[in-house]
Records
---
Amino acid sequence: MGASGKKTILITGCRRGIGRDAALTLARRGHRVIATTHTSAAAEGLARTAASEELPLEAFKLDVTDAGDRRRALGRGVDVLVNNAALGESGSLAEIDLKRVRRAFDVNLFSPLELTQLVLAEMLQRDCGRVIFISSLAGRITMPFMAPYTMTKFAMENGAETLRRELLRLGSAVNIVLVEPGAYRTGFNQEMLEKKYQWMDYCSYFYPIIGKIRSGEKRYFRIMEKRSTDSIVRQVVRAVEAQHPRMRYAAPWWQALGVRIMRMTGK
Ligand SMILES: NC(=O)c1ccc[n+]([C@@H]2O[C@H](COP(=O)([O-])OP(=O)(O)OC[C@H]3O[C@@H](n4cnc5c(N)ncnc54)[C@H](OP(=O)(O)O)[C@@H]3O)[C@@H](O)[C@H]2O)c1
């Protein structure tokens, strides 16, 4: 970390949405941001935007599932790793091809853990640093037809909290933090919800009620989704900059409160 409190922050999955908005916001706050993307084309687009504002942001391709790409995070003095990249997957566990669920776990959990282990080794050597996992409020509750995705975030919640406690036992200054977004209109949810209709045809157990499921989830997300990512980006900034970070940062506040009440009442 620079003497000015400015940090070197590597973020995955910055093509759009929360990752991109957090990367640009953190760079505008003077941090050195390494914004990585799934593809090289996306990195070039982001680099151009950053250059037009003269921001301290470099961008390159880092497919989190690619071991060679992951090694590109090494030797850069990363103070904060933000595991943001994810893919959505949906459908009932009664019938989904489990290859899809494995793929979701690979992108959303195992690959970020591989990247974390690499970067953590450097952080532990310096005895400073922070790993932020972008989880989800949906990783604290259950939602029908979303388990192929939400299970990955449930596992992330448990893993991150456990890792934090383990590092505390080492007396390490390296911290682990969870950021939990509620519903934001980035395109992620629509793509996730639509995926199941690629294969939920007349063979599906749920075929007779597909129309009802589809209109119900459309209505739900139309009401719940925030158009601007500002509130969750503010939480990412807090998670990066807090001297003594909390375990969890969530937004929007009313969805976080709703989830807390649902958990307390066992709903
Ligand atoms: N939006 C919400 O309502 C919401 C709610 C709760 C949690 N979240 C979480 O917030 C984070 C950001 O989501 P978002 O809403 O901003 O959606 P998003 O724009 O789709 O962000 C996900 C990013 O991950 C990237 N990605 C996917 N596979 C990758 C891979 N193998 N390697 C590297 N990058 C990869 C995507 O790039 P490509 O598109 O180029 O593949 C995309 O830029 C995710 O962890 C998501 O689970 C979102």
Note: The longest strand covers residues 175-181.
---
Amino acid sequence: MRLKALTILLPLLAVWLCGFKFIQPPRKWNEADMPIEYYVGEDSPAGMTEDEAREILVDSHANWANVDCSPLRFERAGTIPNEPTFGRSDRTQVTFQGNLESGVLAAAVTHASSNVLEQNGNTFFQTTAYNIIFNSGPAWGTPEYIGSPDCFGRYSYLSTSTHEIGHGLGLGHSCDDGEPCPDPIKRNATMYWSGQRCEDDRDDPNEDDAAGINSIYGVAVDFDVVSPETSGTVGTAPMTVVVSVPDEFQIDRFLAFEWNFGDGSDLVMLDADDPALDGLEHTYTEEGQYTITLTAFGDDESCGGEFETFKRQVGAVLACSPPQPSAEFVNEGDFTVQMVNTSPLGAFGCTTEYEWILDGDESTSLSTYEPQYVFESAGTHTITLRAAGPGGENTADFEITVTRNSDVGCNASVTGRGSLGLGGLLALLGLAGLVRRRS
Ligand SMILES: [Zn+2]
């Protein structure tokens, strides 16, 4: 018997998903340096006039100043010769027609000194400048073109400049290229890693961008979540977690906190002096991947009075039932059978491992998602599919009968490539009744 494994590998399942991120290492402006003065290159990005570009840069900076509780202020200091470079640690500037890699719309480099600043429990180096370069190649459009029938494949200059300034202020990408991004709030963030032609729905910072900027500059909240059983946040349903608000966020500026456990259960509102802030239990009864959101309500002059801020932990809780392995197979002819994995996927991340074992022989174990088997002789074989994940494991057995052509005659219902020439043997596989599930 020979084994032929397909090269479809089960992708590593990432349970920890995306949220706003800081650039690394974290960098932030000092509030004493407000307003941030920036210079603009004397050139026009393709598709726009110099005046249009400068006006939109005022708007895209204002986008960040206008986030609730944001202390950010900006001032356009003037124009400079358009010499695209990322090397100006002494001057914040925006230049055009740079020679960036093709496929890149624009890029930003954020310079910092070795001074250290603290905010909301995080440590940052003090930013001194950001240098933004727009690539040559893409054609840009003002908001009135983008999203209109006259867009003609342009990119939103407002969205991209707001995004690059976000990097200059210390924000990384909400989700990066190749990173799973199931949360629409992260996908629709201005700090999402990519932009499409004629797309205007990331022109303004959304809730995720605002939460990011506030964690660097304003009022932020955070929380802890843990399952006492597993000491993590992945386990078997029903699964109980304990959520708590760390001491550094149980401070005067917050008046109340509200928990949303993401499973349709009632919201839980707690006053700022409620002892349950130090530990509140919640039980997830159904398998699923849940997002917990904590919203803090407060009153702060620097935020213009009453405000609310929130923190989401996406995919923070994964409650799993044991996987239910199942499979079918396809007769490929030439004694070859292609396994088809029909196991229900359940919640994302609840099956992390598949293993195929032939005739109970552990040494044949294959961890591919759908292997192919090539048999050399007639007979009945047992294939065991084992599926495992945070909720446990299960196995299912299948019998496959490989039959000599001469035993059954020439069966017209056999599919696959003809194999009659092969020593008078024919693999008869995939016919109804030949596969049986045993557990
Ligand atoms: Zn970016």
Note: Residues 323-439 form a domain with the Immunoglobulin-like fold (CATH 2.60.40.10).
